[in-house]
Amino acid sequence: MKSSLETLFAAQLRAAGLFFEREYRFCSWRRWLSDFVVEPDPYTPDHPRPEEGVLVEIQGGGFVNGGHSRGMGLERDCEKLATAAALGWRVIPMTGRQVKNGTGLALVKVALGLEPPETLQAAREAERATARSRKRRKRPARNKAVRGLPERVRRAVGLK
To answer: What CATH number is given to the structural domain containing 23?
Structure first.
């Protein structure tokens, strides 16, 4: 199933000129599919090989009690990713936020050796800068006595 995050990540990979396949079956005896397999070279003979490609798993639904954050779903994900690693794949699990802010793409480029590791530090600092600028202003704390007042009284006194 293709999610909006997967569509966004595919567009990022295309824009970066990377070669990828969606929903790649990396294990012959299981029906597991990786969201993406990304390769530095499109001309590999039959199929991507573990020493050349990177498997990408986008973990969505983490903040909405989705399948990736519940007990059995988390256990299945761990089994799948551990099996991929045992078969020799480099596996990069990423969150929706990492896809949206470009950190996921930077991780893939570094894993493929296309960019230096310092790229990750720069991406992290850029994310922190945007997170600080988006932070909500904290509302002033209200006294418990004020919260208990009826709304018409609060308006009359000038409290919201």
So the answer is: 3.40.960.10
pLDDT in tens, 103-153: 899 999 999 888 888 888 887 787 777 766 666 555 555 555 666 667 767
- Which amino acid appears at position 58 of this protein? I
Cα separation, 119 vs 141, whole angstroms: 41
What gap in Å lies between CA 59 and CA 5, rounded to an integer? Answer: 9
Tell me the C-alpha distance between 55 and 25, whole Å. Answer: 10
Dihedral sign (CA 24, 51, 72, 102): negative
Domain containing 83 equals: 4-134
| Whole-number pLDDT of residue 105 | 92
How far, in Å, CA of 20 to CA of 14, rounded? 8
